[in-house]
Amino acid sequence: MVVKGRISRITGPLVVAENMTGIQMYEMVKVGEERLIGEVTRIKGDEAYIQVYESTTGLKPGEIVEGTGSPLSVELGPGLLGNIYDGVQRPLPFIAELLTKTSPKRSIFVERGIDVSPLPRDKKWHFTPGEIKVGDKVSGGDLLGLVQETELILHKVMVPPNEFGELTWIAPEGDYTIVDPIAEIKSNGKVKEIYLSQRWPVRFPRPYNLKLDPSEPLITGLRIIDTLFPMAKGGTGMIPGGFGTGKTVTMHGLAQWSSANVVLYIGCGERGNEMTEVLERFPTYKDPWTGKPLMERTVLIANTSNMPVAAREASIYVGITIAEFYRDMGYDVLLVADSTSRWAEALREIAGRLEEMPAEEGYPSYLASRLAEFYERAGRVKTIGNPNRTGSVTVVGAVSPPGGDFTEPVTTHTRRFTRVFWALDTALAYSRHYPAINWILSYSAYVDTVSEWWAKNVDPKWKEYRDEIMDILLRENELQEIVRLVGTESLDESDKLVLDVARMIRDGFLKQNAFDPIDTFASPKKQFELMKLIIDYYRKASELVHSGIQASKAKEALGRLYVDIVKARFSIPNDKIEMIEDLRKRTLNSLDGLKSKEVKSA
Amino acid sequence: MSSLYGIREYSKIVEIKGPLIVVEGVSRASYDEIVEVELSDGTRRRGRVLDVSKNIAIVQVFEGTTGITTTGTRVRFLGRPLELPVSEDMLGRIFNGLGEPIDNGPEIVAEEKYDINGSPINPAVRAYPEDFIQTGVSAIDGMNTLVRGQKLPIFSGSGLPHNILAAQIARQATVKGEGEEFGVVFAAIGIKYDDYLFFRKFFEETGALNRVAMFVNLADEPAMIRLVTPRVALTLAEYLAYEKDLHILVILTDMTNYAEALREISSSREEVPGRQGYPGYMYSDLASIYERAGRVHGKKGSITQIPILTMPNDDITHPIPDLTGYITEGQIVLSRDLYNKGIYPPINVLMSLSRLMKEGIGPGKTRDDHAQVSDQLYASYSRGVDLRSLAAVVGEESLSETDRKFLKFADLFEKKFLSQGIRENRSIENTLDLAWNILSEIPEEELTNIKEEMIKKYHPKYKK
Ligand SMILES: Nc1ncnc2c1ncn2[C@@H]1O[C@H](COP(=O)(O)OP(=O)(O)OP(=O)(O)O)[C@@H](O)[C@H]1O
Ligand SMILES: Nc1ncnc2c1ncn2[C@@H]1O[C@H](COP(=O)(O)OP(=O)(O)OP(=O)(O)O)[C@@H](O)[C@H]1O
Ligand SMILES: [Mg+2]
Ligand SMILES: [Mg+2]
Q1: Is the pLDDT assigned to residue A274 strictly greater than 80?
Q2: How close, in Å, is residue A180 to chain B by CA atoms?
Q3: Among the atoms of ligand 2, which is closest to the Cα of residue A390?
Q4: pLDDT by residue (tens digit) across A322-335?
Q5: What share of chain B is helix, strand, coil (3-state, %, to 5)?
Q6: pTM of whole model > 0.95?
Q7: Residue of A276, A340, A503 to mutate, testing the B interface (most B Cβ within 10 Å of its Cβ)
């Protein structure tokens, strides 16, 4: 039975309705004459407290509120990829198209009360049934057939998680819309139709069979990430940083270059133009792994900072549910959320309107558990259903701490539930060292997890070199304390060499210009070769310094080679890696010259 | 109760608190509805509904509650949100902070009426800003390029020359290859009379007055109106840009006064305060102003925003600049140190940023060396500045020869590149050539951000 009540109070995005007996917690409701979308967030007596996903301007007490009988859900099926949705999965391009017809003057805006379905109802998809046969016992996750959703992604049509029974009919190969039945399942004497699409409530994780440990790296093409602080497929990470330190550029980089099959990009309370940038550029960029347009593997969720705040709270659940759906097909999915701080603030605003007791900095006491629940939905899993599949959801959240202060609640709690920490540093950003990831504060719990992959696929010495880079950087950090007090003169020659090489590492390895066509993506091999170039120089120069040669002489001996080394990152493309080896040989040879000269003069 | 065309009148005021009045016995008031408050002496004030329950409405009175009594005051609910009648004829006119003409000019014949809160632009119809605006200021054009449709605030401190800089930008801003000038929408938000006069005189002297619409709320006028003024201004800007195909430059000054008014209303409502008493929703609230900038597909016009704010105690981590920086597409930061050194414009380039620069520069837009030159200026200047503090400790003589060159570069940068006249309008070529001149003072092998071919093409050593 549909619950029907009336508005008794409106304050910002929160509406209270009375006469709502029978309404469920988190049920979706339609609010007022314009039938705005809302969700029940608290029930008290016959009153329901509703967060409304659209602007409440003009709503009046007394207007009708109607239940829908089901919780906020997303529609899952072919047609998601390449699309851009608002925080409650309304397709934004379609809204624009609709408004162009109905109110052309306002068509550039997102107006209220627009009721549109997430996936196109009229588009036909070519469905090929799988190996499954009529009469088979089926259950959630079993593969019914395939649809080529985009050039890049083969969509697995699966039995919805909670269904089971006997397959009594399956559609023959052919073209179907998402509202045409493609199979029938009989259980307990009842026949149920199955479609190319299914619905799932966003606040409930989709089921899986077994959680597995991450094992492979998610290669991102960003050197400081892949080499120093790697991400694993199915892992969790955070990027905290003050404004303008590079969170979004890093997120765009991850979305562009990662070795994931599917990418969910959630713009959560950030700028409209940043979504536009993805929308305009991705179709023209090629996936470095397959050469296909990037948009074909990407789904965008946009709740920009000026869009209704309640929908911001919902947007990350909408995103992660879609991510889990592709994971269930056996894909490696990357979800990036920019910025989870805006999500937390939305939570805070709604809790405030509900007059809940605030904990730290006004955030509700359940902030930490909500964050934990969200990041728990990441992981590499053995999916439900046959045939066996493994898939993963990797989650990376940007965090925007007020004043760049990492001790605030969203940063500290997120840290507890994520395993990779890419700390952005305002000082590095001011000096235009990008990506401004601070190598002293950052960490990854996956270094050992991924080192096997590197050893097998790139070079057995990867870990050794990587650790040496890290050691030099840590040593440089200590030395700088001393230099700040007494200058460089009093340092040992070997320490001076560390300083020189550390600068080389910063300029030639850590810095990476996201907007340079060559520098923006470094293949694993290129990352390794650049690292080897610098470390082999260091090792040889180190020997010389130990034999009594000044550090400055080692640098002088390089001459113009120094410039070639630090520029190699943007002058040598991924497909000309042998040039790095050549440069390495010349570098080492230049030091030979130094040795013989010194010996002669002695 | 009386009702006429959706207008309802009530007189039972049960509470007056700060800028708020609580009206009882109200039926069917709507959220965000506009009200007219008539005092017992017949004077009228405006307000809007912030919270409404079945028979109680909380109303924020724009002109404040001084003099309002619980008896004899009548409150009329007007049945609509605050709207601005808009027309192209509003350019060249002066309005109060609520959008009513105050210049004794002819009546505005409205072409449309719009809710001042606007609606969010659909991200799917936005067009990415990429048209280079030459401001003639080297520190901006060369290193923090402004593009059409961007929101780029000036973070200033009290007493720093932000007004002069904003005026210089407004006067000099041009888009290469287009003769067309920007229309200007100017919102004075709680500023002093002499600051207002400065802008007014400036627009008069430059003959720009007929393409400027000014919305004015001065420091001695009611603070609650400040919450309305930028929205009224942007409503006109949107109309001019998206319905009349004009390129509009919006100057909002001073957003710090806006944020303080927001804090006042929040504390009157006894809301849980966020940092330093500012409400937790200040981010979203500020975004509902700053995001009203940009370009869209299918429309010729655009809105470029230059909000100005003064950082309390010059502190960039204060919630007002902090939240602004999280929303805008970069910031131009003014520095008291540079100002005290006598440098104009005193722009701290290291703290400044233009996030939309990359798409606005390069071959066909500015010059092929622009991005690399800018990167190099940043890298070299920041190294020079670091070395300054080191030199202050260990003495300049204990620095290496290369380091001393970077020290010298930092000085040259401030004196030759950054410094310029208030009326000096440098072309972008001029700015970049100037950059090469000072870069040639550091050893060529230290130009690690510039590709070989650019060095060969533009370095003074190889040129001519
Ligand atoms: N890897 C990079 N290469 C080149 N430039 C970069 C890089 N990372 C960041 N930048 C520069 O820094 C600017 C700000 O970065 P970004 O927009 O990602 O910051 P943010 O941390 O997302 O800030 P906010 O919190 O305000 O959204 C970019 O516009 C760009 O100019
Ligand atoms: N572009 C594509 N088109 C069609 N099928 C694809 C595409 N990419 C991957 N697949 C298939 O989807 C499944 C999952 O892809 P994925 O790349 O995750 O495989 P995997 O991780 O190597 O295998 P598993 O998931 O069994 O561990 C595989 O069966 C693969 O063959
Ligand atoms: Mg960002
Ligand atoms: Mg897999």
Answers
A1: yes
A2: 29
A3: 25
A4: 999 999 999 999 99
A5: 35, 25, 40
A6: no
A7: A276
